[in-house]
Design goal:
elongated; about 90 residues; mainly alpha
Length: about 90
Amino acid sequence: MVSDPRTTPRNGLQKLSQFGGAIAALIPLAVLVSFSAVVWRTVSLHSLLRRAWVLGSQEISDPTIRAYVEEQANLMSFRMFLGVCHS
């Protein structure tokens, strides 16, 4: 007696595994689209580079540089949330 491959539980696991593989393949594309949307809305890479800087290091100790970076971050947030860009 030969079992029908469509009714075996293994086939369901294979479909689930294929679905998970497809989702895993789409994650880098989703990240790239998200980064592109942020750069397009803010007209700058500053917000992405700032996030990378914050993840990889400690606070900025120089008050002048810290004030400048915070001002730029506030400007990028304003542009991102309101969709305003400079001309």
